[in-house]
Specification:
193 residues, mainly alpha, D-Maltodextrin-Binding Protein, domain 2, 3-stranded parallel beta sheet, two-stranded parallel sheet, 7 helices, 11% strand, elongated
């Protein structure tokens, strides 16, 4: 009996020593559900630099754009849950995608939020050739020219897509949606005309 107690105590001590290993002992991957150049990517790169300094380990940003964020979410959900594969996303994918697509390759329960890193807002901008200096003039122009203008979003199901579709419904206007694989490519095309 005493031998069994000692063996149990030794096993408990050994388990606590194994659990007390330092973290991290190897590089961390920070997965971004967008291509390089957008807001989420920029925040991940700033975060990766800070994490690398704090942990004394390399933090690699891995951009996995596509599928309205689902490519990255699936990759992280299937990764070993050891803290070496993290997701830097924005709430629209996490909250919106399960409501837009009933059969996803991941589930919300697969993720545990760790920190709120940034807050961003959407803005409406127009080319200088559009005769609108404020939102009211823009809405009037859209109503007078249904379907003439297009808008860029960072992808189907993204906050910029859903937000603009809600704007169109509320204002009873029409614009052509042009989805991109992230805000970086969308912004680049918008700025180039």
């Amino acid at each position: 009996m005493i031998l069994q107690l000692l063996a149990g105590a030794a096993a408990t001590l050994l388990a606590s020593v194994v659990l007390a290993q330092a973290y991290p002992t190897r590089p961390i991957t920070l997965v971004v559900p967008n291509p390089p150049g957008g807001f989420v990517d920029a925040s991940a790169r700033i975060l990766s630099d800070s994490l690398a300094k704090v942990t004394s380990q390399a933090v690699v940003v891995d951009n996995r754009g596509g599928g309205s964020g689902n490519v990255a979410y699936q990759y992280v959900a299937r990764a070993n849950p050891d803290g070496y594969t993290l997701l830097n996303s924005y709430s629209a994918y996490h909250v919106g995608n399960p409501n837009l697509a009933p059969k996803l390759p991941w589930a919300q329960k697969d993720f545990v939020p760790v920190a709120l890193i940034t807050v961003a807002t959407n803005v409406i901008t127009v080319h200088p050739s559009v005769p609108a200096n404020n939102l009211g003039e823009f809405i009037s122009y859209l109503k007078a020219n249904p379907g003439k203008l297009s808008y860029a979003s960072q992808g189907n199901g993204s906050l910029s897509h859903i937000g603009t579709e809600m704007f169109k419904l509320q204002t009873q206007t029409s614009m052509v949606h042009i989805p991109y694989r992230g805000s970086g490519p969308a912004l680049q095309d918008v700025l180039s005309g």
